[in-house]
């Protein structure tokens, strides 16, 4: 099984890096492992691995906080405080290690900024070209009154 072999390699890479006092390398290995766990639909394990990656090293480790932010944002539900914390992880995540991930992050950053601005005034709802965003925003403002 390719997934089992990959899982072993990432965990072993992190263990060996820690053993040789290479904390940043260990954190990077776990961050990338977390990425694959997300794609294998093992979200809870991914969160645990990503938190461990951040615990080991926050220095030069943009992937772990970004992916944690994405997972936490999806899990936040109606909890606005949890949502804002998750969004801050995304906003402060820094440039991602691949073009695809960075493009995804930039798109999320734009969406986060849109909703934060739209929250302040119904006029800001029209800043999006996405008709669904505009409709949801306007309806939200209508019910806030």
Overall morphology:
elongated
Alpha carbon gyration radius: 18 Å
N to C succession of SSEs: HHHHHHH
Mean pLDDT: 94
Roughly what fraction of the amino acids lie in strands? under 5%
- What is the CA-CA span between the terminal residues? 56 Å
> What structural category arises from helix and sheet content?
mainly alpha
Give a count of the beta strands, DSSP E runs of length 2 or more. 0
Helix content: over 70%
Give me the number of helical elements.
7
Major β-sheet, in short? Answer: none
The low-confidence runs, each spanning 5 or more residues with pLDDT under 50, are: none
What does this structure look like?
The protein is mainly α. The chain contains 7 helices and no strands. The mean pLDDT is about 95.
Please write out the topology:
Layout: H1 2-19, H2 23-39, H3 43-56, H4 63-75, H5 80-91, H6 99-120, H7 131-144
Helix pairs in contact: 1-2, 2-3, 3-4, 4-5
Keywords summarizing the entry:
mainly alpha, 7 helices
Briefly say what this structure is.
This protein has 145 residues and is mainly α.
